[in-house]
Amino acid sequence: MTATKFGDSAGMSAATGACTSTGALAEIREVNLSYLLLAQAMLREDRDTAMSRLGLSEHVADVVASLTPVQAVKVASSSHLLCRFRFDDHTILSSLADKGKRAALAQAADAAVAQIG
After folding, report:
1. Is 39 exposed, middle or buried (0-12, 13-18, 19+ CB in 10 A)?
2. Is the pTM value of this prediction over 0.90?
3. How many domains does the chain have?
4. Contacts of 84 (CB under 8 A, 6+ apart)
5. Nearest-angstrom CA–CA distance, 110 and 100
6. DSSP-derived 3-state class of residue 9
7. Same domain, residue pair 30 and 79
8. CB 19 within 8 A of CB 28
9. What span, in angstroms and rounded, lies between the C-alpha atoms of 67 and 63?
10. What's the confidence (pLDDT) of residue 21?
C-alpha cells in the first residue's frame, strides 16, 4: 500500500477530508456491511443487550433490524464508517491495551519455559 499525502487526489480531499481512494472505500464498505450484519444478528438474538452494546437508540435499532439485504448493501456503501470506537476514556482503552500486552508476554514466557524444560 502506498502512502498518500493529505489533499492528494488518491487519498484525502483537502476541502472535505473525505476519503476518495477506491481501496479505502471498498474497505469501508466491507466494514460497514459486516457491522450491519452483526448488528442485525445481535438485535435478533437479544435486542436490549444489542442496543446497549452497540449504542443504538430504539429508533435506529428498528431501522437496522428492518433492513433488507439490498438495503444493507446500499447503506454500507457510504463513504463514512457506520461504527465508531466507544472508548472515549483514555484510561479504559489503555487498560484494555495493556491487558492484551501482558497476556502476550505471559504466553511468550510460557513458550520459552516449555522449550527449555
Report:
1. buried
2. no
3. 2
4. none
5. 15
6. coil
7. yes
8. yes
9. 6
10. 83
Instruction: Mark whether 89 and 68 lie in a shared domain.
Output: no
> What would the mean pLDDT of 22-28 be, rounded to a whole number?
92
Long-range pairs, 59-66, Cβ under 8 A, ≥24? 64/36, 64/39, 64/40, 65/40
> Residue 71's Cα: distance from chain center in Å?
20
What's the CATH number where 44 sits?
A: 1.10.4000.10
How far apart (Å, rounded) are the C-alpha atoms in residues 109 and 103?
10
- Bridge-partner residues for 113, per DSSP? none
pLDDT one-digit tens code per residue, 63-103: 999 999 999 999 999 999 999 877 666 777 777 777 656 66
